[in-house]
Amino acid sequence: MEKEFEPKIVAFCCNWCSYLAADAAGMARNQYPSNVHIIRCMCSGMVHPNFVMDALTKGLADGVMVCGCHPGDCHYQDGNKRAESRSEAIFLMLEDFGLEQERFRLEWISAAEGQKFAGVAGEMTQTLKELGPNLYKS
Amino acid sequence: MPSLSAKIDGKKFMWDKFMYASETEAKEKMAVYEKEGFEAACLTEEGEYLVYTRKVITEITLE
Amino acid sequence: MKGSVLVVGAGPAGMRASSELVNQGFKVFLVEEKPTIGGKMAQIDKMFPSNECSSCTIMPRMLEIANNPNINIIAFAEVESITGEPGDFKVKVLKKPRYVDPMRCNACTDCFPVCPVGGVPMEYNLGRGASKAISFYSPFPPRKALIHPDKCNYLLSGECGDQEQPPCVQACERRAIDFSQKPVTGELHVGAVIIATGSDELHTDRLAEYGCGKMPNVLTALEYERLLSGLGPTGGVVKRDDGTAAQTVAWYVMDSASPIGFMTAVTEAMGTIEKNSNASVWVLHENTNISRETYSDFIQKAQEANVEIVLADAVAPTEGTEGNINISYQAAGRENELAGVNMFVLVPPLAPSKSAQKLAQNIGVQLNPWGFFDKQSGDSHPIHTSREGIFVCGSALEPKGIDDAAIQACAAASHAAALLSKVRGTAMAPPPEKQSLPITSEDEPSIAALICKCGPNIGGLLDINALAEYTASLPHVNQVELAPFGCDGVKIREMLRGKEFNRVLVGGCSPKTHEEVFAMHTEGGGINRYLMEIVNLRNHCTWVHSTDPKEATEKAKTLMRMGARRVALQEPLEDIHIPVSPAALVIGGTPSGVACALKLAQADLQVYLVEKESDLNVVKANQSSFVSRLIEALAKLENARVFTGAELGAVQGFMGNFNAEIVTSAGKEEVDIGSIVIATDLNMAAPSDNGDYEAQLFLQRSTNNFFVGMLGNLNPLDFNTAGVFKCGPARMEMGVLDAIMDGEGAASRVAGIISKTEMVKSPIISVVVDEKCDGCAYCIEPCPAHAVALIEYMQHDGTKKKTVEVNDAVCLGCGNCMATCPKDAVYIQNFKPEQIMEMVHSVSEEA
Q1: Which residues of chain C are within 8 Å of residue B3 when distances are taken between CB atoms?
Q2: Would you tell me which CATH number, out of the four given (1.10.300.10, 3.40.50.300, 3.50.50.60, 2.40.128.10), belongs to the domain C579-758?
Q3: Looking at the DSSP assignment, which residues form a beta bridge with residue C576?
Q4: Are A46 and C551 an interchain contact pair (Cβ–Cβ within 8 Å)?
């Protein structure tokens, strides 16, 4: 019997909010699928669109998330706003590459929203399971 | 290979990519640069004289 | 004289006073009556008027305090007496027994599941939620277990379970449980005392009259906060007594004298709608006068978000059906009713914390008729108490918002600093000496890997031996060891003794809580702290994938692979030392400017005060005897230079290193300063011919002309420009006493910078790759710190080229430059794009 497809997800989490949210999810034991792998960055605004596009167009991940602070809460004033503008460019590039929009997700998660982090991780995993593997996977 | 940049007095200077044979020559070139409004500095490395310059640009236009 | 300060109460005010003091060179003993720190701020969900998540905001500050070697937290303790004189106090502190040795307990939680006594109501959650007889008091530091003596079988009856030793003792590998503990009194010698004991909800019979404790689903505001909080007993879902979610909630503000209760209700109502957009919420109040603009802006936002605010009289709740409440009230002369409301929240008045009365008695300090800390007659300074050298701040004075409490805490710190200026630095522990191996980034990486079992937390779920074997197979990993609790440093130091390694990889818990501690062990082993990486196998793996050990182990392998790749590319970094000009510039001889300059001068710091008028006494706002006395005191201090009939000319530089022109009729004088304070009147002159310092310092104003700065409740005095502060009417309308406290608070912020000979800064900042940068300048505008400048330079052949320069002193390391660069020409130290992509590659590979 064929093994069920397990998507690989990379989640860029900012040091001041969403990384702490993932920690809080841990403290509260909010369960979510092990498909999500967190890479810490100082700010959601640190994520170069190339990181996301390379991850997807080189078939390294089935989905990518960028998690930052809620608007107004960014530790560096407006890094998250820049992450948002970059995400608009990313969605356009996904289209150009024939990749589904659902493979990228930008999410605002504050440090106390552990349950939200777990929820988003679960949702993303389920969405990608239904979508199937990244067409660029070798 | 000399460093492309040098920090002098806390400020970043950039090498002009030339190795001068004498201090006099280096100083001459520095004077030329200074006339164009650049800050210039002379450093020595292994007997060669190097000239570094900088000018802060306040009006920024993106291409 | 002692160069240390006792701070009583570890809520937002106490914590802030502690960090301000330590930053200015004074050691702190922080005594807290509860077993954990944080006060009400850690218990509430959102705070007004910023609507920030309260616990998220305070958590990093708490960790800084908990890890600071010069702040000694004494939790679960009370002050019994204070004798002596200002500068030389002897304090007796009573430590209450936890029955757990905090030096041994490492929060593994092995004892919790085996304790047979459950259902213990949690005091931290106001009785909601239940724990065992051995538990954590709250999710906050100090994270040490504690035993409830009135619930514990062993403490009550001398036995527990059918074996000789109780189950908790058997489960504790660290042998931390100690039933023999008794209350212990210790003595501290300090130079000054700051009281920050806060306030509590006043619980009187009035609450019962309104149904609290009598009708279901009637609760107080603080109880409701625990329901809203993601770290509370219901995980942030507002649940009724029967466990169903509440759809309709009403608040009644029982105290119209202070705006704090009203703001609390509005914040909770808005928080309820944010979590449930279908909820209907009402705030009933009797006539609360809101004069502060930031508060009324917040109220308007709430109303726009569908929070109904009702001016109501004669509020009378009665029990409805299905646990609902019917609330009748009078509004605009007519009878009204809110029928069938799911939950009714009472906001009682705030009173001094319950232990304040006892404390005041113990230390011989007066309280006023309402129970708040008072002062000697004739002394109207809010921060003073009736005893010299003992100061008070925050809600212990009177109910106030967290933003005001933070300012007062800073002011209290400046008072203590002025008193103890001669002994600044004398009680501080020197930073530990670092002896690092000469590792360069060219050296072949050699990784020492430690996998921490973390008790059962990691070792209990993962196939730890398979993980260790796998880790050993990773490139550059030359040794792998397991440890029951790696953070004790024992195994790491053992491994590093041989000096064969130049990288440390820890598979353990979260770097957010443990980075400092593992960095300490890494340095102790002779390796630069930036060559260490912690992989989060606990919060991000075992704790959240606990139903599938096989999957969890596979993910753990991936995470270790990612970490090993990252740490191999890590470079040794040195902290950045920047010399500081040890002087301050205060602009504006207003009450806040004068108060700021005075506190700085009294603290033996050099200060320049610039005022446009010909004489400080002529300034309109200074027409009061209180201010005249401050002006007189300032004139006597040599290290305060007052420039009257003066204006500010050109200003340039950055935190620690500003240069300013002071222009008088006599000419221009240039001063070098480390910090600047704006203490002007609101209606300041527009930029003069002499210069526009507002533009040069990137200062911003709001639409109503007040200066605005850093976002957030905890930074009301800070501009976004580092090293520049604002106080008094320059930032908000306020009375003279508040303006004075504002100025004194700003003095503390300034002293934190200029009392040091140099600033130490994290080296995790932006680096330009000269070979690749062509000066396209895309990275300049996104920089929040204005740290990037464009420079032109000459080539020998006459061509001009461009590149960018990063100001190391102000760069925050956020990475926005890196993310905009199209040339791969700028990166953040140890967050290089190649490191990040290596980690992404690692995710796609199979173990």
Answers
A1: 770
A2: 3.50.50.60
A3: C761
A4: no
